Structure formats: C-alpha cells, structure tokens
Amino acid sequence: MVDSLPKRRRAKAKNRKFYVVGLGGFHTAPGWEMDNLATLTGGRLVLIPPRERGFVSFPETPRLVIDKSLGRAPADWELFHDYRLISDRMKSLLETLDLEGVRFVRCETQYRDGRAAPAYWLCDIVRVLDAVDEAKSVLEIEYRTPDRKVYNLSRRSSLVFKEDSVGAAHIFRLAFYPMVVCDQVLKDACKEAGIRGIGFTDTTKY
C-alpha cells in the first residue's frame, strides 16, 4: 500500500513536541481547603493514590471549601497533594482529548458561607509510560538496586520521547520519574480554552 500521507505532515507527526506539565500564572496563596481531608486519608497528612494510580473508594465525597479571605479562588489546574484539582472545563478538555489517561472524582464544592460554588474535581493522570528515548536524551540514570532504575533530573536535562511508545496519548506520567508530560495538542487546546493555572516547559530544555 502506498503511503499517501504528505511528507511534510509525516515529519510534523514524527517531531511532536512534548512538555512538562506544571503550574503557572499565579503567585498568590490559594484560598481553599479540603474540609474533610482527615476522613479521606484515614488520618494521614497526605492524600496519595493507591499502588496502581487512580482513586480508592473514599468514605465520603471530598468537600472543597473556598474561602476568598485566605486567598484566590482555585484556578482550572491546581496541585493537590499527589493529585490535581481541576475545574469543569479542564475536565471536559481532558475527557475530549484523552479519556483513557485520566480519572476523576467530583468534589462537593461550596464557599465558606455555605453558598454553592463552581464544580471542581480531583484528577489523576493514570497512564504511565516508559517512553523516554534514553539514547537521544540528556539525563542521569541511577540504579538504586540492580532492578530499580530511576531518572535523576536535578541537573539540566533534555528529554526526547519515542513516538511508538507514546502512540496516541496526549498526557502521561514517566515510568522512572514523578513527572507529568503532555504533547503539543493538549498544550494548544489549553491555550485555546483559556485554561488558567497550568504551565508548560519544553522537555528538551528542562
């Protein structure tokens, strides 16, 4: 079969850009808290995912309280312990682009005075890929034990990804480093939707 895809389009797909997904755009304290955190964590101080990512069955619905006297209202993308706290429109964007890579739990959201507030969700990026092209990347690889490899990105690094390993994914975690990565498609979609609170760093200049 003859490949009918134009050469220019093939080259563009092959050279897809990737970004470290972080926070961006705010320098003020968030004015919100998870009112029933102790119940959700079973008394622990940190809300963390189970071994295989995702969410456990919480004993009650996460209860997010927004208190503007403490700071700003939550943006579309916030860090919350080992999860993300996201708005309705960020959830819709992720569902549209890459539903298989994410999981959500809806929060019961209200203002401190008891009024109903906009919907927010706890989000976890559950797709984990061993997709770094180590031969083409600049990074340090450490072996904590003979069978446990980790990346050390404390120094300036440059990460290149294997297209066949990433496939159709638009957002994922690295297998050997606690980092969330997305492609140009998701970055552009966030810009077009006016998503606030999210930041992107080119993985080749990390």
Strand fraction equals 25-35%
Q: Please state the structural category.
A: alpha+beta
Helix content: 10-25%
- Mean of the pLDDT scores? 91
**N- and C-termini, Cα separation:** 40 Å
What general form does the structure show?
A: globular
- The largest sheet has its strands arranged as 9-12-13-1-14
H/E element order:
HEEHEEEHEEEEEEHEEHE
Poorly predicted segments: 1-13
Characteristics:
globular, five-stranded mixed beta sheet, single chain, alpha+beta, disordered N terminus, 206 residues, four-stranded antiparallel beta sheet, 5 helices, 14 strands
How is this structure best described in words?
- The protein has one domain.
- Helices cover 18% and strands 31% of the residues.
- The protein has five helices and 14 strands.
- The chain has helices at residues 7-14, 37-41, 88-98, 163-166, 184-193; strands spanning 18-23, 32-34, 63-66, 77-80, 83-87, 102-106, 108-111, 120-125, 128-129, 140-145, 148-152, 171-174, 180-183, 198-202.
- Helix 3 runs antiparallel to helix 5.
- It is globular, with a radius of gyration of 19 Å.
- It starts with 6 loop residues before the first helix and ends with a strand.
- Residues 1-13 have low confidence and may be disordered.
Quick recap of the structure?
With 206 residues, the protein is of the alpha+beta class. It has five helices and 14 strands.
Which secondary structure elements does this structure contain, and how are they paired or packed?
Elements: H1 7-14, E1 18-23, E2 32-34, H2 37-41, E3 63-66, E4 77-80, E5 83-87, H3 88-98, E6 102-106, E7 108-111, E8 120-125, E9 128-129, E10 140-145, E11 148-152, H4 163-166, E12 171-174, E13 180-183, H5 184-193, E14 198-202
Parallel strand pairs: 3-7, 9-12
Antiparallel strand pairs: 1-13, 1-14, 2-3, 4-5, 5-8, 6-8, 10-11, 12-13
Helix pairs in contact: 3-5
